[in-house]
Amino acid sequence: MLRFHFSAEDLARTRVAAAPHALWEIAASLHRFQTPAGRWAYAHWYRTARERLREAGLESAVRQILLPLYPRASYWPDFLTPLEGAAGLEAGLKAILATPPAQVTAELAALARIRRVPAHLARLPEKESRTELVSVLRAYHRTVIEPHEEWMHEGVHTERVRLARHSLDGGTEGLLGGLGPGVRWQHPRLEIGTYPTEHDIRLQGRGLLLIPSYFCWKGPVSLADPALPPVLAYSMHHEQPRPAAGSPSLEVLLGRARAKVLRATAAGATTTEAAHRAGVTPATATHHTTALRDAGLITSHRHGNTVIHTLTLLGATMLSRNVREPSPGAEG
């Protein structure tokens, strides 16, 4: 069991990541290759990921470098998922390169106690070897994670909306009690009963960063070293109703351009930002945001000289329940 021990200060400093954490998603996606569990939830991704890796010439690197470093086990090295990754992929990769060699050596030794570590990975404390690792991680992300980022961002936004409702009803303790199956709030502890090892982390005023993860399935995951900034990556999948087979995609319901504008507002956007993200002109974006607002899918608020568009609960629900890839023939 994993237990986080909270103080009043820790409750005040608990927060939810605003976007997918690229390095945690890389780790969890590599775990998806190592088990059939939950494969139905990633059916489209799984069908295309292996083919994309083969076409990109990455199969060997994934098999020889990534899978040995990210076993689906009770431990893999903490330096592979640094906190800096919350600021984006490149910030996380930079942190991996900057990891002290002594930390890399110690964590590889910990990994070797539960799994055989290939001899060539023993060079990872050397900067040159980690530079190669970072190149493989970047290529892997570009090939099998990046094509699905839009849906991942929608999922995180919807999860934040869901947790916000728990927080409004029950404060931070209500939020912690609503993280999903296997996670229990037992004041002053957050307990994860499915954790593979006995592990206690005393937050001691540092708070906790909750990281909703698209590729994490069922069991939440944390860092092994309790001295590192505390995080909990957990599955954003909560058995939400899935579109029935043959149900129309968002593009069919709204039209391709309008669906793109709706997705562009998932994290909040000005009209110009929505236009840029959706690849349409500002005038076209204005037309679509007006229609989406009239339909109750977004709301718009003036902030100084700009207008900020955000999803309504109805809009967020539509995105979370309509996650199929757009069909090539959809128009709008």
From TrEMBL:
Region (Disordered): 268-287
SUPFAM superfamilies the UniProt entry points to: Winged helix' DNA-binding domain
Annotated InterPro entries: WH-like_DNA-bd_sf, WH_DNA-bd_sf
Protein name: Helix-turn-helix domain-containing protein
